[in-house]
Amino acid sequence: MGLLWGLIIGGLAGWIAGNLMKGQGFGLLGNIAVGLVGGFLGGLVFRLLGLAATGIIGSLVMSVVGAVLLLFIVGKIKGRR
């Protein structure tokens, strides 16, 4: 059941981050991938800042923050403004 929640949260986080950063999502698999990597990145950032995310909503917020950061970094590497 944890894997299913991870995929659902990853998909939602990727979709939200895609809408925030470039105005559209990346498709189902792209959203899940961005959200899962964003969740990992968000977890690292939250730990470095001494923050903790608990529950489904906390995991979603952490994943969205990480996914937005991921998309920002990728955009800078690709040279987009």
Automatic annotation (TrEMBL):
Q: What is the protein name given in its UniProt record?
A: GlsB/YeaQ/YmgE family stress response membrane protein
Just give the chief location class: membrane
Pfam families per the UniProt record, alphabetical: Transgly_assoc (PF04226)
Topology with regard to the membrane? Multi-pass membrane protein
User: What organism is recorded for this protein?
Assistant: Oceanimonas doudoroffii
Where's it found, cell-wise?
A: Cell membrane
Its GO CC terms?
Answer: plasma membrane
Where is the chain membrane-spanning? 6-21, 28-49, 55-75
Please state which protein family the record places this protein in: Belongs to the UPF0410 family.
For this UniProt record, give its keywords in alphabetical order, as a comma-separated list.
Cell membrane, Membrane, Transmembrane, Transmembrane helix
InterPro entries according to UniProt? Transgly_assoc
